[in-house]
Amino acid sequence: MDGQVTTPHGVITAPELAPPSGFAHAVAAAPGRTVYVGGQTAQDSTGAITGSTMAEQFDVAAGNVAAALRAAGAEPAHLVQLLIYVTDVAEYRASLRELAPVYRKHFGRHYPAIALLGVSELFDAEAKLELVGTAVIPGAGS
User: Fold this and answer.
1) For residues 50 and 95, what is the distance between their CA atoms, to the nearest angstrom?
2) 89-133 tens-digit pLDDT
3) Strand 10-12 relative to strand 129-138: parallel, antiparallel, unpaired?
4) Residue 104 in contact with residue 110, Cβ under 8 Å?
5) Phi and psi (nearest 5°) for 52?
6) Which residues contact 44 (CB under 8 A, 6 or more apart)?
7) pLDDT in tens, 41-64
8) Which of these CATH numbers, 3.40.50.2000, 3.30.1330.40, 3.20.20.100, 3.30.70.270, describes 10-138?
């Protein structure tokens, strides 16, 4: 999934805003069926949080998002929004070099509208991050 990903959705770059890097300013979703992916952490199939670093946990959480999308008949290229909740923004920022290839492993070079939000804690105390996504499967009935 590391290569260029084409998306059926319209990625919008506002010329008066700073150029986006690793996210889109906005995404105009093509008509289709909307899939809302509930919060995915680094839970393995037993429900245990795995990974001790931000990148390790992102790898598992992103894999969980991709699995949920596939179960709904969607692909990562169908994502129109991704919200990233982290318990330590500074740690996330310091991990960007390690996070970039992990992101591309699961989502390629497709960058939906993304927001990073710092939170004081997540439901699972060991979780460093949680991913919430919205995808639209173009042309699929509602």
Assistant:
1) 17
2) 999 999 999 999 999 999 998 889 999 999 999 999 999 999 999
3) unpaired
4) no
5) -110, -20
6) 50, 60
7) 999 999 999 999 999 999 999 999
8) 3.30.1330.40
The Cα–Cα gap between 47 and 72 comes to 21
User: Apex CA 136: angle with CA 133 and CA 138, to 5°?
Assistant: 160
Q: Could you tell me which of 137, 131, 71, 76 has the C-alpha nearest to residue 105?
A: 76
Residue positions counted in the chain: 142
Hey, what are 8's tokens?
């059926």
The residues facing 27 across adjacent strands are 11
**Residue 116 token pair:** 């990073």
List C-alpha distances in Å: 123 to 43, 119, 127, 137, 141: 12, 11, 8, 29, 34
